[in-house]
């Protein structure tokens, strides 16, 4: 098939550490060798340190989302896109309200050795645990 529709129900969900941050992969290495696509939900004020070793486009679906690296900072609101390049650690942060995101990474983020090593803080969860996810 040349096109497919996905929702939060199709995602494989994980929770970041003991936070209210949920990441759901919908296109992973089982569906594509060239890119990853997913959804994420951050509770209000939640932050996630991460070292990206891949390009990632993050589309804000609701709320405000900030990406920081050292003194560099951008904040994207609903309908805006944050592009994160590989490099040193970034901080992903939700604003005062919960944030829902869609993301695409190249290549599939799990293919990176650095990301695979850092993924030990990700814990599988069921859809029922994911608060506020778009279905």
From TrEMBL:
Name under which the protein is recorded: Cupin
Which species does this protein come from? Answer: Pseudonocardia nematodicida
What is the taxonomic lineage of the source species? Bacteria, Bacillati, Actinomycetota, Actinomycetes, Pseudonocardiales
Q: SUPFAM superfamilies under this entry? A: RmlC-like cupins
Q: Name one Pfam family in it.
A: EutQ
Entries under InterPro entries matching the protein: EutQ, RmlC-like_jellyroll, RmlC_Cupin_sf
């Amino acid at each position: 098939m040349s096109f497919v529709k996905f929702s939060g129900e199709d995602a494989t969900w994980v929770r970041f550490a003991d936070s209210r941050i949920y990441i759901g992969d919908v296109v992973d290495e089982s569906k594509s060798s060239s890119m990853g696509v997913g959804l994420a939900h951050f509770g209000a004020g939640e932050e996630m340190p991460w070292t990206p070793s891949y390009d990632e486009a993050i589309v804000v679906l609701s709320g405000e989302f900030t990406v920081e690296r050292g003194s560099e900072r951008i904040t994207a609101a609903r309908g805006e896109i944050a592009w994160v390049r590989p490099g040193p650690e970034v901080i992903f942060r939700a604003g005062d309200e919960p944030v829902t995101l869609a993301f695409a990474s190249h290549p599939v983020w799990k293919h990176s050795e650095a990301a695979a090593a850092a993924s030990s803080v990700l814990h599988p969860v069921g859809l029922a645990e994911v608060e506020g996810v778009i279905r």
